[in-house]
Amino acid sequence: MTKEHNKTPLFDALKEHHQNNVIPFDVPGHKKGVGLKELADYVGKRVLEIDVNSMKNLDNLSNPIGVINEAEELMADAYGVDHAFFLINGTTSGVQAMIMSVCGHGDKIILPRNVHKSAINGVILSGATPVYLTPEINWELGISTGVSKEEVKNAIKEHPDAKAIFLINPTYYGTTSNIKGIIDLAHRHGMAVLLDEAHGAHFGFHPELPSSGMNFGGDMAAVSLHKTGGSLTQSSALLLNEGMIDKNTVKIILNMTQSTSASYLLMSSLDIARKNLVLKGEEIFSRILELVRRARVEINKIDGMYAFSKELIGSNGIYDFDETKLSINVSRLGITGFQVYDLLRDDYNIQMELADIHNVLGIISVGDTEEYVDKLIAALKDISQKYSRDKRIEYKDYILERPQILVSPREAFYAKTKTLALKDAEGEISGESIMVYPPGIPIVTPGEIITKEIIDYIEFLKAEEGILTGTADPYVDKIKVLMTVTSNK
User: Fold this and answer.
1) Contact, 241 vs 101, CB < 8 A?
2) pTM for this one?
3) Which ranges constitute the DSSP H helices of 262-315?
4) What's the half-sphere exposure (Cβ side, CA atoms, 13 Å) at 392?
5) Lowest CB count within 10 Å: 20, 193, 276, 280, which one?
6) How many CB atoms lie within 10 A of CB 419?
């Protein structure tokens, strides 16, 4: 790192602007909170006083040449990349921009099927043709993990004209693939490597954490600093290494998909989070790793629970593991992860990140404390004592494997559709995506065949009161399917 990371140029400029008490005849219309008094009274007047719009002294995110540019240069230096772009529409906008920067209509992109919905939407927006990789599966835990280098090699052999390879680093559950090996393989075949590092914003700031793919020569990465780096919700960064992708192309595409009314609260939080990660990251994550390691030891003493970690490395496509993801398998309790998730929230006032049939997941990051972790451990012990059953949950997750695609996602998205009851949609081509959120990984996407297994799994998720999204029908009792098939691409 070459720059002075104790500086926060954007945040400092915002504070100076606030101190000058400028009279606003611009937007936002609440005018320093006067027109939104109820919120100002609750969160504090100053928060709304610094909710301002772009102006000369505060720069403009669409074409940064002042303090935003300085802050982005510091962000790039923090991650050891050539360029960084602030994102105020979340990592979703960064994932879409990555794909649209490399792929045009009909271009092939190789990607795992367990990608976030933002990647599928990026494929739709760009018109690219997806070539899906089947992720490795740990059937005992009921999770998809990484993709093997051999799987990628086979995909490249079958599709040597693909423009890019899209990788997840890490998965929601903390597993990583052989990122360096795959990047080297892709570059030998002239393919750009795009990285969804939404859950890896903290990588690179402690020697015992996995590495960012950008350190291995990845071309672009979208990182959610709000998830694990400490910035405000919806603030992220897009990282770029020069060579295969043009910086100005990325800038133009971001300006197509991002708001022109960038939040200075969000951008300032990125400026501060970057400073903290660089100057205090090793100290912070030493503490976090100590917390989460102790938590795993205690949880693994609880009957029916297994907090898995680095012992999985070397199996099922798992090359490394992010210990800050507190993934807990609860299938031996005889109740589902969804039930444990609900119990923690409703009975113990503890909000976990997500649940599936067999697991619950907590993210331990910069703001967690020993007190929080101890309360979680105590709650899990209590749940084991009160709710454990003799019979293990045997229901098998619908694990995403390579789907049958009859129509490209973009063509299916714009095709004429009809609405059917979900139970009657077996064998039809989906015109919509369906996903449980979080994690936001589509169960089915536009252009794919709807199978009986998909329908059964969705009905199971509904019965477990999982949060399903993606369909026009808010209750997911109905789904749009294509009326006719016009292509086999």
Assistant:
1) no
2) 0.93
3) 264-299
4) 13
5) 20
6) 14
